[in-house]
Here is the input.
Amino acid sequence: MRDHHDTQDCGAMIAGMAAEARRAALQLARLSTEQRRAGLLRAEEALRGARDAILAANAADVARAEAAGLSAAMIDRLRMDEARIAGMAAGVATVATLADPVGQVIDTAVRPNGLELSRIRVPIGVIGIIYESRPNVTADAAALCVMAGNAAILRGGSEATQSNAAIHRAFCEGLSRAGIPTTAVQLVETTDRAAVGAMLAAHGAIDLVVPRGGKGLVARVQAEARVPVLAHLDGINHIFVHASADKDMATRIVVNAKMRRTGVCGAMETLLIDAAYPDPAALVQALAEAGCAVRGDARVCAIAAVTPADEADWDTEYLDAICSAAIVDGLDGALAHIGRHSSGHTDAIVAADEAIANRFLAEVDSAIVLWNASTQFADGGEFGLGAEIGIATGRLHARGPVALEGLTTYKWVGRGAGQVRS
Here is the structure.
């Protein structure tokens, strides 16, 4: 593993990797769907075969993270076990079964002069993925990029260097078995932060950068990038429990949304309870009994023994067994709170009143809006997309879980019969 002591010129290193990636992307674009699928299936086999090596590498990363005092939530995101490795490998195989977007005809029109114009999906080209904590992103991102005909340059977090390297080695071994160039998926080995800057400055060499990580990483990427960015911002996700909600359903959804896995971006961070809901204290109590520390507004504090929330709580992605809670005046109160504090990731309503639910779905401007379902479904696999490269919270190109289609663009193809323009 290189470090800053022997990486004198990150710019030159990234330029070289990008040039190799461009050549690989051109080769990928010429491969058939079945050839790319075969590469992923061989990669799945190699990942399963490398289980012991991945576990050993991950154990070293986890030990280092624990010694450095990383939070329990961060260590949970970092940790791999046999089940997570099997799930990661299965995710790669799932991507291989998905419909190939490359070459898809989006639409076709014939102009009055007989010129036929079509929009055809094509790969984006060279994609840089900058991510933290989760080693499985190495395989997820590689699989999605390859299946969509893109070459990938991966830069994982320093806390997962050995895990990422072991996963990358296995994935590339699988690609090689299928005759796909291993330069289609490259891992930035240096932990020097200058490598991130070099990727962000690689205009014309890297076509798109996707950051997956905390607010600090995303802020740096957006501030420095000279390359287009597909951003994944905080998951400050809300659940609004309307007065009409079924009590058992509301309790089940709220507890699952917060506590199933607290460290994922789809976890609920703020609970909003309709002032007319018949038993708001029971919802707060259910969270507390599940091990969640609740920080409440004045109205919640009046009905339950919780910590008073401060202004920062409404804009905090805890990624831990903590949530904020407020009692609001009906749907309009919930919409106003969400409008002020939502990060545009995932917001949900629990309600039996269909008209109220439809208003919520129409008026909340987030990438994912849900009715009577846990926010933990904010995941590409749960959307039937296979693995995801992230949840895009912007409004351009792709939104919500980004998978194969989100990693393509399109070109116009015109078919004529000698037409000239007068």
